[in-house]
Amino acid sequence: MAPSIPHLRKTPTSSQLIVNGKPFLMLAGELHNSSLSSAEYMRTVWPNMKAMNINTLLGSVTWEMIEPEEGRFDFAELDEILHDARTHDMHLVLLWFGSFKNALSTYTPAWVRKDVKRFPRVHVSEAGAVIRTEELVSPFNPQAWEADAKAFGKLMQHLKEVDSEHSTVLMIQVENETGLLGDSRDRSRMANELFKKPVPQPLLQHLQQASSNSLHPKFVQRFPGIHSLTAGEATWEDCFGKGPAAEEMFMADAFSKYISHVAASGKKEYPIPLYTNVWLNVEDDNSNLDVDLPVIVGGGGKPGVYPSGGACPHTLDVWKFNTGPHLDFIAPDLYFHDYESVCIDYRHGNQPLFIPEQRRDEKGARRVWLAYGTYASLGCSPFGIDSELASEAAITRHYGLLSSVSSFVLERQAINPDDVMGFFFDELDEDPKPRLWVRQFGKFEITIDRAFVFGKPGPGAGLIIHLGDGKFLLVGWGFNFLVKSVNPKATFSSILHAEEKVVSRNQEGAVELKTGRVLNGDEHRHGEFLMMANEDPDYGGFPIAVTPGCRTMICELEVYDIEEEEEDF
């Protein structure tokens, strides 16, 4: 692979995005769906995005936009956008809205949507067994995926010609939130006939022969009997039971094969990273939700309420088998679900994590620290970012600080990702349960707690990096850092020394951390804990300002323990 084009490079537990030969952390935002269709509109957007500390924008390129008539391709608008992105030193992740967008086919060209003989639709069953036609191209139709793959291949061929020397475009999302709404499976004549046929032998053998550890835990939980099936042909219902569960897996097989055909066409032309995204489901007990809202808001609890056949955690094994080398990873859209549990789900098997859509408010912005820190995310991307002002957007402050330390995060991710831990604390009324973040680094157990002076405890977010030998880099605000030795011979542990750090650049342009204030004694409570307070701590009316507010939001400290003999007492 040519070193100049973006690609993924393996790390001990995941992968990093390599751009122009160096690891790159995407501090991303996703545009509204139509924004990237107009270079003129985008010229009003670029400066605001730079002021927001964003380095990568996600935006759609639609099939109808580049192939309005079959066989006639038009990339003029896209080329203007690429040129302007380079001018503003901005990277792009392009979202291919081809056959599927949010479980519909409304971004296909008119010549596809009108020709139901060549491109038949999905049909769903309404109450009373009435069959309804959906605005959704059938995933079982080879002619549809061949046309989509041809268009996607042309797009990737064009990007290779105009952008391979620039690496403006870092990755491509293939389709968007694929699946079927309104029913658990397609009820068309074609789909009905295929559903009666056996599960494809290669897929069934893979699921049966894979160890329970390699299969996704949520697949194993739902289908514990997959390994005990007798040899021979088995239908979808034999494998997954009658009803929606089998029908969802049937649709997952169809959609993932379709996406694989499209992705393969593009990968052959220009092999930069490709992925697809997911509209998440809600578990039966709502355990994976992070909000007190109706289930339907979070994505729905039944296939068809959320897109049936999409790459949810329990269908990931089917998706990853069928998409094989053509998709580099699968990414969750993460708005209302428990952030950490979804990160864990989509890091399964050491696949890289990327959050292509998430909430853009302060609550969402705080969570990116967990993704970048603990789960080594390639990037996070608040949605609808172009309708916010940098001066008011929550992400501006968070990305600004992350950008200043991104080289240190990337360095640790490449060597030992377990040396980095991210965390967040919501407002108390949003997160009434006490939350502690605990991790062992070498012989020290580190606890990150919510910062508290005397008044109302506030929100916070950040990450810590273990630098080795008891040294840590602390980044963020609103938290306390506490240390305890796990050495059974240790009789005492404490903070030895702490310094506020200021970001600067050397003559070569590399980021350096210079010492600002020394934060010893009172500032770390004489070794008990170091508080990374908010900029303006709430003293609750207490007359003594015992804790100064954070200034640079970066601190380096060293912890130590001692071993004492009996005669030392």
From TrEMBL:
Pfam families, alphabetized: DUF5597, Glyco_hydro_42
Record flagged with keyword Transcription: no
Domain Glycoside hydrolase family 42 N-terminal: 46-196
Entry protein name: Glycoside hydrolase family 35 protein
UniProt keyword terms in alphabetical order: Glycosidase, Hydrolase
All residue ranges annotated as the DUF5597 domain in the record: 396-530
Lineage: superkingdom: Eukaryota
InterPro entries from the UniProt entry: DUF5597 (IPR040719), GH (IPR017853), Glyco_hydro_42_N (IPR013529), Glycoside_Hdrlase_35 (IPR001944)
Family per record: Belongs to the glycosyl hydrolase 35 family.
